[in-house]
Design brief:
Helices cover 41% and strands 16% of the residues. The longest helix has 20 residues. The protein is globular, with a radius of gyration of 20 Å.
Length: 346
C-alpha cells in the first residue's frame, strides 16, 4: 500500500477582472468556494494589466477564515520594505499567514515599459536579494542592515512587527536553471509549468520532488464528456493562436518557449495532457482532460514523483472547486490503494 501524501498544498487562482463592475464579488466568492472545497489558498496575479494584487489579497483575507492569498511578487513593482510592511500589517490585522509567489518577470514589453532592462538570469539574482531582505525585515531581530548588488539597507526597522509564527511561505516561479538556483538559495518551493510526464523523456517527473506545478483539470465520468466541456470552454481560435505566438515573441521565459513549441497533444492521443488552452492564449498552463479515472491516475503520477504543490488554473464554474478537490482525493486513494481519501487541505 502506498504511503499517505503529506503536506499537499492545493491552490486555486483568483479570476482576472473581466470588467470593473462586480469584480469585488467575484474575488470574494472564488475565495469562499475554494476554501469550502479544501483548497489551501489562491494565487493572486501581478502584472501591468491587472488589479493591484495586495488589494485583492486583502479582500481574500476578509472573505475567508483560514485561507492564504498566494501573492505574486515582482521586484519592479514595490520596494522590499513596502512588501514586508504589507505582510506584517496583514499579520497584525488578520492574524493570518500569506504566501509569496516570487516572480522574476518574463514579459519583456512589461519590463521595458517600466524602464527595466535587467537580463533574464540577473533578474533571478535580484529576486533572491529581494526575498532575502524581505525575510530579514520580517524576522523581527531589530533594525536591518543589508548590503547587496541590487538592494541596500542601513539600520532599517520594520513597523508593525510581524506576529510570531506568520512568516510567509515562499514559492518560486521559473523553469530555468537560474530560477531553480534561486529557489534553492531561498528554500522556496519551485513551481513550473510541467511538460507531459513520461519516463525517459523531457517530461520525466524526476525533478518534481518537493516542487510544484501549475495546471488545469477537466474531469468527467467519461473521456467524451470531459472533452466536450474542454472544447466548449476553450474553442479553437486562430486569433488566439496568433496572440499566443505574439506573446512568445515578447517573452524571454524558458517555460513559455518550451510550451510554445509543444504539440496540442504532446503526450499522445491517449494522454489527458492538453496544450489547447495555452496554444490559443486562453490561459497560461497545460490541462489534464479526461475521465475521472484517467485524470486521477495522471495526478497520482505527480504525487508519486514527490510533487506536493498544485496551483490550479482559474475556475470556470463554481463546481470546478469541488470537482478538482474530488480529483485529488481520488488520486490519493489510488496511491493508498484504499477506498477512503484524506482531506485535500493542509
Amino acid at each position: 500500500m502506498a504511503e499517505e501524501v503529506p503536506d499537499l498544498r492545493l491552490f486555486t487562482t483568483v479570476p482576472p477582472p473581466a470588467d470593473r463592475h462586480g469584480y469585488l464579488g467575484v474575488v470574494r466568492q472564488a475565495a469562499r468556494l475554494a476554501e469550502e472545497a479544501g483548497f489551501r489558498g489562491a494565487l493572486v496575479y501581478s502584472d501591468n494589466n491587472t488589479v493591484d494584487p495586495w488589494v485583492v489579497a486583502q479582500e481574500v483575507l476578509a472573505a475567508t477564515a483560514d485561507f492564504a492569498p498566494l501573492v505574486a511578487v515582482q521586484p519592479v513593482y514595490a520596494h522590499p520594505y513596502a512588501v514586508a510592511q504589507r505582510i506584517a500589517s496583514y499579520g497584525m490585522l488578520y492574524g493570518r499567514r500569506i504566501a509569496l509567489n516570487l516572480v522574476a518577470g518574463g514579459v519583456v514589453g512589461d519590463l521595458t515599459a517600466l524602464g527595466d532592462a535587467t537580463p533574464h538570469d540577473d533578474r533571478y539574482l535580484r529576486l533572491t536579494e529581494y526575498a532575502q531582505l524581505v525575510g530579514l525585515l520580517l524576522a523581527g531581530a531589530g533594525p536591518v542592515t543589508f548590503e547587496g548588488r541590487y538592494y541596500r539597507a542601513r539600520n532599517l526597522p520594520l513597523a508593525p512587527a510581524l506576529p510570531a509564527g506568520l512568516a510567509p511561505e515562499l514559492y518560486m516561479s521559473g523553469s530555468s536553471e537560474a530560477g531553480r538556483r534561486a529557489a534553492g538559495t531561498l528554500g522556496a518551493v519551485p513551481v513550473r509549468y510541467p511538460v507531459p510526464p513520461g519516463p525517459g523523456t523531457e517530461g520525466d517527473l524526476g525533478g518534481l520532488d518537493g516542487g510544484g506545478v501549475r495546471i488545469g483539470i477537466i474531469a468527467r465520468d467519461t473521456d467524451r464528456e470531459a472533452w466536450t466541456v474542454a472544447h466548449e470552454r476553450f474553442p479553437a481560435s486562430r486569433a488566439g493562436r496568433l496572440a499566443q505566438m505574439l506573446a512568445r515573441g515578447v517573452s524571454d521565459s524558458e517555460w513559455v518557449a518550451r510550451l510554445s513549441a509543444a504539440d496540442e497533444f504532446p503526450g499522445g492521443p491517449d494522454s489527458p495532457y492538453w496544450m489547447g488552452p495555452f496554444r490559443t492564449y486562453a490561459t497560461f498552463c497545460p490541462y489534464l482532460v479526461g475521465s475521472h479515472e484517467k485524470v486521477e491516475a495522471e495526478i497520482a503520477r505527480y504525487l508519486d514523483a514527490g510533487c506536493r504543490t498544485f496551483i490550479m488554473d482559474t475556475a470556470r464554474a463554481a463546481s470546478d472547486y469541488t470537482a478538482t478537490a474530488a480529483a485529488f482525493a481520488g488520486a490519493r486513494r489510488r496511491r493508498r490503494g484504499g477506498p477512503d481519501a484524506a482531506p485535500v487541505g493542509p
